[in-house]
Amino acid sequence: MASSSSSFLLVAVALAALFAVGSCGTELTLTIGKDSSSTKLSLITNIAISEVSVKPKGATDFSDDLKESPANTFTLDSKEPIKGPISFRFAAKAGGYRVVDDVIPANFKAGAVYKTGEQV
């Protein structure tokens, strides 16, 4: 009986460990593309996401989905200067939308990397 209790406990611990490892995601980071300027924002993500949109300071709603090209690179072209801080919205592969408010500061610079705090 002790043997079956030990086996059961071992299986339970192994399953708990697998669940813990499997539920950990990767933190989504945003890198400002080197081609970004006051009227162009190029965002490079470290993981695959979709339906990306942004809301610059003063905007009442999020932009239409940004164009993705190449993979994991999303671009906003604007006739007016893009004002920060900028909020970021995306569709998670697991379903649903996530919003990260003011993740990109007003003084964003090409090459800068910003952590979103979102595990995907």
Structure notes:
With 120 residues, the protein is an alpha+beta fold. It has one domain: Expansin, cellulose-binding-like domain (Immunoglobulin-like, Sandwich). The protein has one helix at residues 2-23, and strands spanning 27-32, 40-45, 50-55, 67-68, 73-77, 86-91, 97-104, 113-119. The strands form two sheets. The chain has a five-stranded antiparallel beta sheet with strand order 4-5-2-1-8, with no helix packed on it. It has a three-stranded antiparallel beta sheet with strand order 3-6-7, with no helix packed on it. β6 (86-91) and β7 (97-104) form a beta hairpin. It starts with a helix and ends with a strand.
What is shown here, in short?
With 120 residues, the chain is α+β, with helices and mostly antiparallel strands. The chain has one helix at 2-23, and strands spanning 27-32, 40-45, 50-55, 67-68, 73-77, 86-91, 97-104, 113-119.
